[in-house]
Design brief:
The complex is a heterodimer. Chain A is built from 14 helices and 14 strands. Chain A is α/β, with parallel strands linked by helices. Chain A has two domains: about 30-150 and about 290-365, Response regulator (Rossmann fold, 3-Layer(aba) Sandwich), CATH 3.40.50.2300; about 155-280 and about 365-405, Rossmann fold (3-Layer(aba) Sandwich), CATH 3.40.50.2300. Chain B has one domain: Orthogonal Bundle (ABC transporter involved in vitamin B12 uptake, BtuC), CATH 1.10.3470. In chain B, strands 1-2 form a two-stranded antiparallel sheet. In chain B, helix 9 (about 220-235) packs parallel to helix 11 (about 265-275). Classes of the chains: A alpha/beta, B mainly alpha.
């Protein structure tokens, strides 16, 4: 594993050396009054496919904002790079603040990298909008006052799917076999799942940690077969999920499979007929909301394929930043923090607007459990998911699924 | 019962080892004959997967598995003729650098042509699902994969040990100067070996595409395992690579059975142990031209 990582790092750093030789002078010579934003997201490794969508989303928002005259009359300049791994992410974040003149930081999908970027933000006392990482710890015990979190946290995903399972009689008295991604995000998700199982009468008969670079799951599938569980449950991330789903279908094990984390790109990559079960999502392109449909149509026109949930979340994140900068007439970290902590409302292309909670800096928003469309029901290769109703429901507070203040471990 | 479980993991590991073998054997052959560590080997594996997806759109699964490796083998001719050939006699660091660069170029080209998002293909419906022999569960598709690997392996062995082609190759590995003195040009043989090697890697990619996802960095993922297999097996030894590939597959399976989190690390521990006691690898031969 070490040699693989080192090689990937070598390769990407060499690629960046090349890219900077060709691409960066344009930035250096650009007008001084541009608002520079440091953006990091994984473009290689097991989350790379998601990061590719993230870049498309934030680029689209950037072009729209700049075409409309920018923010405070200044154009936005997103400096986007591959975060590679937690150590490199921190180094790059520091460099973006020190040398590249970034006003603040945005991005990330990998929870471990997000954590190191959060530390850089806190050390430098600069604003960081943490967009796509879902680990509870980031907004819990590892929280800091310079970081705000956009994506739904692990425990909300567990609740979204868990309640659907309770409703479908797939929880009480059932034996679960879980596979967990072996890094901070997976550990968090597994802990949240365990809490939910305990509270609702499910038991865990096996839990296996799976390294993030695993692509071949047959030994795990054999172990599952030996354990004979009632339900198989995935706490995996990125490519891991896709590979598990494909190979689960290949081996044709009889137990239903569900999961507490899935990104649309992973579902698409699993291929038709392989995915089954109940999963959570933060947004899907078939969502029946007019503003969302406009975004989807524009995205397809621009890129020739529908947006993935990481494209959506990066798009709305830059729009939120633009709103915050416009309202505060500033890129100053303290003013931005004050604005976001004021629980200002943001249009996030969903039925209900979202807002950040003051005490844990988490965006409160709707999430959706989904099941898989029956064969023949899908309109095209992208139309695979059957969205369930939004959770929390329209008549509930947006905070009902989220950790309560009294259980909270976040101290700013 | 525990024993049966373990045996099932062993058998499954052997199947997986067969797939490692497809990639590692070519790497070993190219190194043994040409003295070049082909860091671009993974790129040919990735290309095999991508090209098989393209061919499958028009001709279906079967032809894709056959034609994709052939197409990549043709690329192998260009690769050997215009690039590798210049480095056989050169400092090994140069060939290391040039194939490393080629691997990066190939990965980026794949990203430009096919996009960064992973592609996914399904296996034919008839091959989906599993069969149960006694207590053992097998994926049908992987049984097919195993049959193909065995077929390829037997062909390569016959080619290397029963045909005159193989005699020249084996002599060329040990004493290239003597072969030259006998009036035999090794270069066409080297072209053939590179074709064979990258073709096998492409076959691995085409066969594994329906099992996993096809993405630009897949070559980088697989080449590490292939290297470990070659190093454990020992250079220049056909059976060394075979045994090593199967061993890596089995050790990984058994480790996952007991300590799942250590599954991916197990092969490196195995390599460490082997190198500690047998620096030349399990069945590695002493190759004079590499000992200076």
């Amino acid at each position: 594993m070490t040699s693989f990582n080192r090689r990937t790092v070598l390769k990407t750093s060499a690629a960046f050396a090349g890219a900077s030789a060709i691409g960066f002078p344009a930035i250096v010579h650009a007008q001084a009054e541009k608002i520079k934003i440091g953006h990091l997201t994984p473009l290689t490794g097991f989350l790379g496919a998601l990061g590719a969508y993230a870049q498309l989303g934030i680029r689209m928002a950037q072009e729209e904002i700049n075409a409309a005259g920018g923010v405070m009359g200044r154009q936005l300049d997103i400096m986007s790079e591959d975060s590679v791994n937690p150590a490199t992410a921190a180094t790059k974040a520091q460099r973006m603040l020190d040398r590249d003149g970034a006003a603040f930081l945005m991005g990330e999908i990998n929870s471990a990298s997000a954590l190191t970027i959060m530390q850089v933000a806190a050390r430098n006392k600069r604003f960081y909008l943490q967009i796509g990482a879902r680990s509870d710890a980031l907004r819990g015990k590892d929280c800091n006052r310079y970081t705000f979190h956009v994506d739904i946290p692990s425990h909300v995903m567990v609740y979204a799917v868990g309640e659907a399972l309770v409703r479908d009689n797939m929880m009480k008295g059932k034996k679960f076999y879980t596979l967990t991604a072996d890094y901070i995000f997976g550990h968090d998700l597994a802990a949240a799942a365990k809490t939910f199982f305990d509270a609702n009468g499910g038991t865990v008969v096996g839990d296996e940690l799976v390294a993030t670079d695993v692509t071949e799951f047959s030994p795990y599938l054999l172990k599952i077969r030996q354990a004979k569980p009632d339900v198989v449950c995935s706490n995996l991330a990125g490519n891991q999920v896709t590979n598990l789903i494909k190979q689960y279908a290949e081996f044709g094990l009889p137990y239903p499979i569900v999961g507490f984390n899935l990104n649309t790109a992973d579902a698409w990559a699993a291929g038709e007929g392989n995915l089954s079960g109940t999963w959570p999502t933060v947004w899907y392109h078939t969502l029946d909301v007019p503003s969302s449909k406009t975004f989807v149509a524009n995205f397809i026109k621009k890129y020739g394929k529908p947006p993935e949930n990481h494209a959506w979340i990066e798009y709305i994140s830059l729009k939120m930043m633009a709103q915050a900068m416009t309202e505060t007439k500033s890129t100053d970290t303290e003013k931005l923090i004050a604005y976001f902590e004021s629980e200002a409302q943001f249009d996030i292309l969903k039925a209900r607007k979202g807002y950040f909670r003051k005490w844990d800096h988490q965006l409160m928003q709707e999430a959706y459990p989904f099941t898989v469309k029956l064969k023949g029901k899908a309109k095209d290769q992208w139309d695979q998911l059957e969205l369930g109703g939004a959770v929390p429901a329209a008549n509930e507070s947006l905070e009902v699924l989220s950790v309560k203040k009294e259980q909270n471990t976040c101290v700013m | 019962m525990q024993f049966t479980f373990l045996l099932e993991q062993v058998v499954n590991g052997l199947v997986l080892g067969g797939y490692y073998l497809l990639i590692a054997l070519g790497l070993s052959l190219i190194f043994s004959v040409g003295g070049v560590v082909n860091l671009a080997h993974g790129a040919f594996y990735a290309l095999g997967a991508y090209i098989s997806i393209e061919i499958r759109k028009y001709l279906g699964f079967g032809p894709a598995i056959v034609l994709s490796p052939l197409a990549v083998a043709m690329l192998g001719i260009l690769f050997e003729r215009f690039l590798l050939r210049r480095f056989y006699a050169a400092d090994p660091i140069l060939s290391l650098l040039v194939t490393f660069g080629l691997a990066m170029i190939a990965e980026q080209l794949i990203r430009i042509v096919w996009g960064a998002s992973p592609l996914s293909v399904n296996m034919p419906a008839v091959l989906k699902g599993s069969v149960i022999f006694g207590d053992f569960l097998f994926s049908r598709y992987r049984l097919l994969l195993l049959a193909v690997v065995v077929g390829v392996l037997v062909s390569i062995w016959l080619l290397l040990h029963k045909a005159s082609f193989g005699r020249v190759i084996r002599a060329g590995i040990q004493k290239p100067d003597m072969v030259a003195a006998l009036g035999i040009r090794l270069q066409p043989y080297m072209t053939a070996i590179v074709m064979l090697g990258v073709g096998m890697a492409a076959l691995g990619g085409a066969l594994f595409a329906p099992i996993t996802i096809v993405h630009p960095a897949m070559g980088a993922e697989v080449i590490t395992v292939a290297f470990v297999v070659v190093v454990i097996g020992g250079l220049g030894s056909f059976w060394g690579v075979v045994i090593s590939a199967l061993l890596v597959g089995v050790v990984r399976g058994i480790t996952i059975n007991f300590v799942p989190a250590a599954g991916e690390a197990s092969m490196y521990v195995l390599m460490f142990m082997v190198l500690l006691f047998r620096p030349r690898g399990l069945l590695g031969e002493r190759i004079e031209k590499f000992e200076t």
